[in-house]
Design brief:
Elements lengths: L15 E5 L4 H13 L4 E5 L8 H8 L5 E6 L1 H5 L5 H12 L6 E5 L15 E2 L5 H12 L25 E3 L12 H13 L6 E5 L6 H12 L5 E6 L3 H9 L1 H5 L7 H14 L6 E6 L4 H4 L9 E6 L10 E4 L5 H11 L5 H10 L4 H12 L5 H11 L16 H15 L1 H10 L7 E2 H5 L8 H8 L1 H13 L3 E6 L10 E6 L1 H9 L3 H17 L11 H8 L13 H17 L2 H19 L4 H16 L3 H19 L4 H16 L3 H19 L4 H16 L3 H18 L5 H16 L3 H19 L4 H17 L2 H19 L4 H17 L2 H19 L4 H16 L3 H19 L4 H16 L3 H19 L4 H16 L3 H18 L5 H7 L14
């Protein structure tokens, strides 16, 4: 804010802090100037509280300012946020009502303000002259006018905001919805003020539609009170520009002839000399051709502001300010002003779809404001048809549709460097967010159309084309270093706004679209890394995956292009990109069935990958139906000992495991392993995968010793055949550690899993589902080993990341949630355990059905929560139901059933029926000894529990003997200081937690 020329002290009077909306800066500048001329100290505070900040907090912070806070009340001040009148009324009653001596206000609007603003007793300045406004301002603050204060007419300070500069021409109407850009406006202002005489020239540059003209217009209105001459010139064409500049001569009162060349010379000379005023501002809007404009720039004491898409202005000694797209907060605020019916999430969704481009936000929000269409429907419409004239509303603020604006620029590019348009068209068949230059430059020459051959083969022409696109802000380019691992993508990356991308394609002829699409498809196929199981190649697959849709790969009959699609799907499955993979697979199935027919071999390949992705999300019933159709067809057409048939059978076995049909899965997995062994031998990765799957089936049947032996063989073979850090080798480590833990060998399991987790994080990344599995198993290992605090922290982190990465209903997330609920029940919050447990139980019931062992196990866990909460009768009922359900689901001797038996016996005891508890306890110990062995922790826990029941029946001798044997076993197996041993020694009743397992 400019300072007054002369101030007079008023005896140490405290300062006045002027709080204003950026839109009303001219008022704040004038108010501050008048107060300073009357001897007041003035500070300025722009009002722009962060989104989400309560108004009460923002006003309380404002009250911390020294002296009186003078608020410049306006529509903008009230709306920033945006905020409702109800919010303001509540905040003013809370914060200001008791501090009326701290706050004062002036009102510069005639519109209705929140009723509680009456607390300010605001002086009305709207629609009054400068002298009366000054009198009212001073009166409101209780300041006696200084008779020696310099009058406003001396021309040394800001002009009264309701009075235009003496010379004012061509300035567009102010955009009352102008949003944000506060820092950029302030930077431009200060750079112009600080520039030396003759050097105060700023260029606002950026892509089409980014709001350069709007920004320049707002600058004029916001700072116009500090100029005596403001002249706006459209600088797109040289002749009209010169004529418009010449028209400034009579406005300045210059005596010249009628010939506009003479007038133009007089204007430039007057501006150079600063006559009749040295406070002038010249705006040259749309100066995209510096060679036609640069010689017209005046020098002198005033300021020149240019808007342009052309970066070449940096070669003409102008200060360059890039105008970016809106920040997301600015986009949301703007959309909600343009379309008040939209809430914040809807505005965010629209801004995301349009990548925060102001012109499109204005025209699309304007259209939405007058319709009932949802934002999601509208965004879908935009993606299908683009932002054409039928789905936008052109306002005075942005009078040209984006397509029209772009067409003008494209014609200019075609005239200057035709190859730049060809390059842009090719880029439109890659995803706009990140186009690797390497992909473009490595397109095989034989795949290029004639107009692109010269561009790709001539480095000079290539550089000219790139430079022209950069010059007009059509693209931007960044360099990414290539890492030591040559599998990582690197080099230069082109970035293009999504709407530029869409508009370029929309303006292309159909024939050319098909031709350029084929070029992009071949470029992507040539870059296929081919090995999606290799984690080192995942960055390259990720780079290619984003371009598949733009290149229309799903309509290609090229086998190499189709292989790329399949490889990307495999990569998405292994890397945990399930949602993206499912979308791609579903689109590919629809496209390829239409293109190739329902029984083409590619359909069976695609179905395999689709089923994997679907299964990963827990939809086992759907994948079983899909895999059975494929397997039946392949058995009939290719026979049972065919590799494609075995692959389909592998998928069906996984479906059966997910559906808890474990015996069927074991039988089928055994057949698959035999088939692969016969066809490709024992040391093939497919055979080892089949061996892994057989071991998983054994574990799910409770045969932990057999599962461990087979998983160890698989791990050793994978390390030798693949490499120790291959993702399948690492997966085998998780399986081995899991089997060790389930066998009660907690220290061994923890040792294996701790090392594996460290390697997983390095090789696969922290948020890969396999890494999350490894960390989850480590949490369980730590918990069973007795390190409960460390286990709880780890399980909590894994649950948070699983929910964020995979979603709350993903099978892995549910597994982790079960574990964390059990931890919370014993060592955290019983309420939290109950909430999580009930959610998991409901989701298992919905996804898998009441008869599935996971739904039953969740019920068993919930019974423990009820018991801990003192709801013993309900806990007993639920425990008995879980026991019967688990017997039906997996049989009486399965470890899960034995665990339910342990809990049910405890519930009977707590409910006053020790005889029934002891009867069930004896059966449990007998079966556990036969299934798991005498020294398994579950067997020993069963003995401790049975001893408690016998003691309740006064069979102390038998109870003491059984207890002593169990304590000896626990000390031997787990150690005398292990939590289980200590708890048993203290005669705390043991319990069993159900744990869903990997399928």
């Amino acid at each position: 804010m400019p300072a007054a020329r002369r101030t007079i002290s008023h005896g140490g009077r405290p300062p006045v802090t002027v709080s204003f909306a950026g839109f009303n800066r001219a008022w704040a500048a004038w108010i501050g100037d008048r107060l300073e001329r009357h001897g007041m100290r003035v500070a300025f505070q722009r009002w722009d509280p962060r989104a989400g900040t309560p108004l009460e907090d923002a006003l309380s912070d404002l009250a911390l300012a020294e002296g009186t806070v003078l608020i410049v009340l306006s529509d903008w001040y009230i709306q920033l946020g945006p905020r409702s009148h109800e919010e303001w009324n509540a905040a003013l009653r809370t914060v200001v009502a008791d501090r009326q001596d701290k706050f004062a206000a002036v009102s510069i609007t005639t519109n209705a303000l929140p009723t509680a603003t009456a607390v300010f007793g605001a002086a009305e300045l709207a629609d009054v002259g400068a002298r009366e406004a000054e009198r009212r301002l001073l009166a409101r603050l209780g300041i006696d006018p200084d008779p020696h204060a310099e009058p406003e007419e001396d021309g040394s300070g800001p002009r009264y905001p309701q009075e235009q500069p003496r010379v004012w021409g061509g300035v567009p109407r102010r955009n009352t919805r102008f949003t944000g850009r506060e820092n950029l406006l302030a930077d431009v202002y200060h750079r112009l003020q600080q520039a030396e005489r003759g050097a105060a020239v700023c260029t606002l540059y950026g892509m089409s539609g980014v709001g350069k003209t709007q920004l320049a217009t707002e600058y004029v209105y916001r700072f116009g009170s500090e100029y005596d001459v403001v002249w706006w010139v459209a600088a797109g064409e040289r002749t009209p520009m010169r004529q418009r500049l010449a028209e400034l001569a009579p406005a300045l009162g210059l005596s010249t002839g009628q010939e506009y060349g003479e007038r133009l010379r007089a204007v430039r000379d007057a501006l150079r000399r600063g006559e009749p005023s040295n406070r002038w501002l010249l705006v040259l809007d749309g100066a995209d051709q510096p060679e036609h404009v640069a010689d017209m720039l005046p020098s002198g004491p005033g300021h020149v502001l240019l808007t342009s898409q052309n970066r070449e202005w940096s070669e003409h000694n102008t200060m360059m300010f890039e105008v970016p797209v809106y920040t997301r907060e600015e986009s949301i605020a703007f959309v909600r002003r343009r379309a008040p019916r939209l809430d914040r999430p809807e505005a965010d969704r629209l801004a995301e779809a349009l990548e925060d481009l102001p012109l499109l936000l204005d025209q699309t929000a304007g259209w939405l404001s007058d319709t009932t269409m949802t934002v999601d429907e509208y965004v879908e419409l935009l993606e299908e048809s683009g932002a054409d004239a039928e789905v936008v509303r052109v306002a005075h603020d942005f009078p040209m549709t984006y397509q029209t604006s772009w067409s003008i620029l494209q014609n200019r590019l075609a005239e200057a460097v035709p190859a730049s348009v060809d390059l842009l068209r090719l880029c439109s068949f890659f995803a706009p967010a990140a186009i690797p230059v390497r992909l473009l430059r490595e397109i095989p020459p034989g795949d290029l159309p004639e107009e692109l051959t010269g561009l790709m083969n001539d480095p000079l022409l290539w550089n000219q084309a790139i430079s022209k696109l950069l010059q007009y802000s059509v693209v931007r380019i960044e360099s990414h270093d290539v890492t030591a691992d040559d599998a990582s993508p690197g080099g230069e990356i082109l970035y293009m706004h999504r709407m530029v991308h869409q508009t370029v394609r929309a303006l292309m002829p159909d024939r050319q679209q098909a031709e350029y699409s084929r070029v992009a498809q071949r470029a992507l196929a040539a870059a296929d890394p081919l090995r999606p199981t290799d984690t080192r190649l995942w960055p390259r697959f990720a780079e290619l995956a984003q371009h598949l849709k733009a290149a229309n790969v799903l309509v290609s009959r090229d086998p190499d292009v189709q292989n790329l699609v399949l490889n990307v799907l495999r990569y998405m499955y292994l890397s945990g990109e399930y949602r993206s993979g499912l979308k791609l697979a579903e689109r590919a199935l629809a496209a390829w069935r239409e293109l190739l027919g329902d029984t083409h071999p590619r359909i069976w390949d695609l179905s395999y990958h689709y089923a994997n992705l679907l299964r990963a999300t827990g939809d086992y019933a759907a994948t079983e139906a899909l895999d059975r159709v494929v397997l039946d067809h392949l058995r009939e057409t290719q026979g049972p000992r065919d590799l494609d048939t075995l692959r389909a059978a592998t998928g069906l076995a996984a479906d059966l495991r997910g559906l808890a049909r474990f015996e069927e899965a074991l039988e089928l997995s055994t057949t698959v392993l035999q088939g692969y062994t016969e066809l490709v031998g024992e040391q093939d990765s497919r055979t080892l995968n089949a061996q892994n799957n057989l071991a998983v089936s054994l574990r799910l049947l409770g045969r932990y010793t057999d599962s461990l032996a087979l998983h160890r063989r698989t791990l050793e073979a994978r390390r030798e055949l693949l490499r120790p850090r291959h993702n399948w080798s690492l997966f085998s480590e998780i399986h081995v550690a899991t089997d060790l833990r389930l066998l009660g060998r907690y220290a061994e399991a923890t040792s294996v899993q701790e090392h594996s987790v460290r390697v997983h994080r390095i090789v696969m990344g922290n948020d890969n589902p396999q890494t999350l599995r490894a960390e989850h198993n480590l949490g369980l290992c730590l918990y069973r080993s007795g390190d409960r605090a460390k286990a709880g922290r780890l399980l909590g982190r894994v649950l948070e990341r699983s929910e964020r990465v995979l979603g709350e209903t993903d099978p892995l997330t549910l597994m982790v949630a079960v574990s964390y609920s059990c931890f919370a029940r014993e060592h955290g919050s019983l309420d939290q355990a109950r909430e999580i447990g009930e959610q998991v139980a409901e989701r298992y019931l919905f996804q898998l059905g009441a008869a599935h062992p996971y739904a039953i196990g969740a019920q068993a866990n919930h019974a423990l929560v009820l018991r801990a909460a003192g709801e013993r009768q309900q806990a007993l009922l639920l425990s008995e139901e879980a026991l019967e359900g688990m017997r039906r689901a997996v049989g009486p001797d399965h470890p899960w059933t034995l665990g339910c038996s342990l809990n049910a016996a405890a519930a009977r005891n707590f409910s006053g029926d020790p005889e029934a508890a002891a009867e069930l306890g004896r059966d449990t110990v007998t079966r556990a000894t036969a299934t798991l062995g005498l020294r398994h922790p579950l067997t020993l826990s069963g003995q401790i529990a049975l001893a408690a029941d016998l003691r309740g029946l006064r069979k102390r001798q038998e109870a003491d003997k059984l207890e002593e044997e169990a304590l000896t076993g626990l000390s031997t197996v787990l150690g005398p200081q292990h939590a289980h041993t200590v708890s048993a020694r203290a005669r705390t009743r043991p319990y069993w937690d159900f744990e869903p397992q990997m399928t």
